[in-house]
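Q: My labmate handed me this sequence with no annotations at all. I'd like to see what the chain might look like in three dimensions before we decide whether it's worth expressing. Could you predict it?
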Amino acid sequence: MKEINRIKAVLIEKNKTGKWLADNLGKDVATVSRWCTNHAQPSIETFTRIAELLDVDVRVLINKTK
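A: Here is what I predict for the chain of 66 residues:
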């Protein structure tokens, strides 16, 4: 499976947990876990909200394709 996002890595860098993210987004912990393992991807709007919560540019959350 291709790793599309870096949510898990950025959470670690910011000393935050998946539970913290789920609570702040109003999402289920299992949903955030699927994002962190790249088994599913959040919407663009959710990527933007995650970036705001983690105080990073949204591009930091997505792996480069080239």
